[in-house]
Amino acid sequence: MSNQHRIVIIVSIFILIIAAFFIMVRPALNQNLDISQKIGDQKETNSQLKERVLQLAGTKDDFNMRYAQYQKYSVRLPGRTNIQFLANEIYEIGQFADVEIQSINFNETASEDGKIGIIDINLILTSPYYNILIFISTFESMPRITKLESINLSYSADGYPNMTATMIGKTYYQIED
């Protein structure tokens, strides 16, 4: 075999190796480029979502600040009595705790010095035991000064699991001059 044939064979093998390289590696390169593009898109989406989360966190912080201010101002004694508002609050607590309020009675009095108004609250409600506990816990954490003085539990006429709770409590308000 002459040198020319060897050179032709070596060049042919070299061309075949390069062709095989492109045939095998080129699809993998294209696939890597596609994956790289998808990763870039995901990074962009991720950065947009992070920005949105930070925006929502700022909104949540703003809400928490305003809610704290609301709580600060709502803990003060109300300036006047509004029994209808108080009754609505109690009915909302009843709906939240899933209790049936049978009756609510109010009796207004004043403290000995005449500066603080006192509203006596008599409640009768029917519900399962744990719902009554939820009602009591929520009632005592109202954004006004409330105090439960007595609770009497008995099985209701409906029978188990319903109970009847008779509660006596007080709430206060500031009498304006």
What's the story with the biggest beta sheet?
Answer: 4 strands, antiparallel
Share in helix: 55-70%
Average pLDDT confidence is 82
The percent range for strand residues is 25-35%
Distance between the termini: 124 Å
The unreliable regions are: none
Strand order of the largest sheet: 1-2-4-3
Note the overall shape.
rod-shaped
Structural classification? alpha+beta
Radius of gyration: 38 Å
Count of helical segments?
3
Order of SSEs: HHEEHEE
- Counting DSSP E segments of at least 2 residues, the number of strands comes to 4
Structure description:
- With 177 residues, this protein is α+β, with helices and mostly antiparallel strands.
- 56% of the residues lie in helices and 27% in strands.
- The protein is built from 3 helices and 4 strands.
- The mean pLDDT is 82.
- Helix 2 runs antiparallel to helix 3.
- The N and C termini lie far apart (124 Å).
- The protein has a 4-stranded antiparallel sheet.
Please outline what is shown here.
The chain has helices spanning 3-74, 83-97, 129-140, and strands spanning 100-110, 116-128, 146-155, 162-174.
Please describe the topology of this protein.
Blueprint (H helix, E strand, L loop, with lengths): L2 H72 L8 H15 L2 E11 L5 E13 H12 L5 E10 L6 E13 L3
Essential attributes:
177 residues; alpha+beta; four-stranded antiparallel β-sheet; 3 helices; 4 strands
